[in-house]
Amino acid sequence: MRPLAADLVVWFLGTAGHVVLLVGFVLLAERLLRGILPPAWRYGLWCLVVVRLACPVVPASPVSPLGLARRTGLVGWPRGGLGKVFTVARADSPAAPASVAAGPRAAPSAPAADPVATVAWAVVPSLLAGVWLLGCVGLLARGLHGAAGFRRRLSQAREVRDLAAREALDACRARLGVRRRVRLVETDLVATPTLTGVLRPQLVLPVGLLDRLSASEREWVFLHEVVHLRRWDLAVDALLSLLQALHWPNPAVHLAARRLRDAREAACDVRVLALRHDGGGAAGYAETLLKLAAGVSRPLAVPAFVATVESSHRLEARLVAIRDHRAERRRQHLVGGLALAAVAVLGLTRAVEAPVAPAAPVAPEGLTGAAAEAAMAQEFARHPLVQVSGRFVEVRGSPAEVRQTLQAPGVPGLEEGSTTSAAVPLAPADAQRLLAELNRDGSHADILSTPKVTTLSGTLAILSMVKEQYFPRSWTAVERDGKTVAEAVYGQATDVGSVLEALPRLDAGRPGHVTLDLTARITEVGDPPWREETLKHTDAAGRAVDLPVRYANLDKWSVSTCVDLPAGHSVLLSGGTAITRNAVVKAVPVLGRLPGLGRWFRHIRYERSARARLVLVTLDRVGSAVAPAVPAP
Q: What's residue 304's pLDDT?
């Protein structure tokens, strides 16, 4: 498993690339359907970007453009996406991908990775994740601080007592079917009518604005803000502000946010014009917006607010659209719905990962064409495919908790305290019951890894879920700056993790049965991770020098067996339960650390802890494969 920093970087980069693709689809749809696409449907298209940002994962689809690009070779991205960059290029990734060595013998290991490159790849994801998190925290803190300050000052605003204005606002609410009460206040905090409050909406007006507006212009303003309230634009804007803070390094997100807010205002304008046919029509509405924009310099930097005129710089496009407003036709809504569905299918899906096919046998040397095909077909017939699935499980807790977890499924051979290895065949029902117990909430079991491979009968498969780490193999004394110091000597990288070796063999005389040679190994860094020792050295002056050194404290566990199982059955490997006695020190702060007297303020309690390691291996005969065609030279 990769560290959290690498997972965050992989998730962010994958989401950023998907969002850029989705934004491109929306821009293309706007370009192609210019003059046809209604503003409400254009707003819906940009809301798809919000949906993608809010969803950590999206469903797979065969029509995804990512899968099409991969199949046609336009994108040569590795299987597994960006995760493969951090698990293949880095030698010390905590969860390198499973490596399968097929053949009578395992393939030779790759050369050791460069320690400098290893450290660099370990630091890069942490640095990127740290910068991203700092930016998120800073932007969220600034937004929350601004919102809290605005709400605090707004609570002191004077509520409007003008009965005519309140009746006009209530009439607009009734006209649009809005039942939520809207508080109408006046303050000098805003320069234009502003709607705020997702749960408790408030319409904030500049001081003296009602005296400068006619009754018709008031109705235009109230209709505009009530339409925003009816469409839940405040909730969308609050979510968008949060997503902008989380995805701040992605410029496509900020572009989408600006275009979404522009489309939101255009859709609101169209709805307002459709509700009123008197008072000068579009001309009266445009004059009202111009009057409101006179005192606006820049948008209010507070999340979850909607103003009638947010910026005077973008007002010109709205006025042109209002001037050219025409009643929308049914055909336009049909085109908008089709565009929304098409962009959603293309932009909110990911590529379908094709299953990994097993390696096909190589044709014998000297054979080509039909002879090679026949030889490979015979090889497949003699060696059917077998799927081996493994689960490395560790149960940790008190002896009673470990005993309860192991005995709950009713599987024999898992006695608490046993230090001998055991191999227990399990029927499918017993294996399912064991897995249900291990995955139960409150269980003390932790599934370390779940390797799986499809191999040929009689072919050794090695499944490795390891990370490569460099530990000192030896120490040597060197003279440096007039001092004798210990210098570590590093060798080959140590594989830390789990390894499963499986050699299945099908018996022609017993159809459906598999003879399986298994070897499971786990190598972990112990607790404490280092073992302190002393290097004795005699310097040039003949003086004996004791240099402190340390070696890695590695905990190694392995178990091997050979079993005969029917296809579909499982075998449970147990290495026994280890019980340790740990000292837990509880001390009074400060007083417990005093030399001499501190022992009167400390209490040492000894606790017994237990740990059991299990490996559950399941066999499934896939059957004979079809030999691939070998083109003739």
A: 65
